[in-house]
Amino acid sequence: MRARVRIKRGAFSGKVFVAGFHGVGYVGYLAVRHLARALRGRLVGYVVSPYMPQYASMSSHGIVSPYELYDVGPAVVFLPNVPLSRGDLTRVPYALAGASIRGGARMAVLVGGLDNRFRRGEPNYRYAATRAFMDAYSGALKGGKPLEEGLYMVGPLAAMMTYYSAYEFPAVAILPYADASGADPLAAKEAVDLVARILGVEVDTSELLRLAEEKAKLERELEEVRKRAERGEETPTFYV
Fold first, then answer.
1. What pTM did the predictor assign?
2. Where are the beta strands (DSSP E) in the chain?
3. 6-61 pLDDT, tens per residue?
4. Containing H/E element for 121?
5. Cα separations (Å) of 145 from 21, 141, 201, 207?
């Protein structure tokens, strides 16, 4: 049984595809959530799967589902409102990567976090990029360094980067150093600033600075998100 991407026709065409997940420091999730909100994203699609958490709520646009896609102007952003279920860890990343390529996206930018215990006084972020990305867009990565040999991405980012590499598609994973013990809004701000530079837009990140000051409140909110995903299944896996 497959995960399916349901998105408006032409929504990916010529756009940058941006995705992040509930990994180290929640960096990917916080970054894509902020982009969808700060750029006033317009809901354009969903990922549906028989394994997705049985969770839904209401908002101004209608039903809030586990996995949503937003048009934010120059990009389409995947927003996982809850962590991927165990069954979706091996389905949703490939469905997203395949849909973005078939839909005509021009590149993919993935966001994750690196445990800051591995930091050695170097730049604020590392990156992993496909050859197609380096050939066309390497100038966008000034200030960062490639992921060192011996350090590995795991989970959805690794699956998607492997898929993009196999199809010779321009894709990069941006990996700011982050606090692995809890939510790290400052690392998410670093990621948002980098994504904004690639997109050529300005993004107000004052909300992430506020969240950094109210970290305890944010972590209670994220714990509630995690508990929603747990209901009806074992504890979900968290990943880079």
1. 0.90
2. 4-7, 16-20, 42-48, 57-59, 62-64, 67-71, 75-80, 107-111, 114-115, 125-129, 145-146, 171-178
3. 999 999 999 999 999 999 999 999 999 999 999 999 999 999 999 998 888 887 77
4. none
5. 22, 8, 23, 27
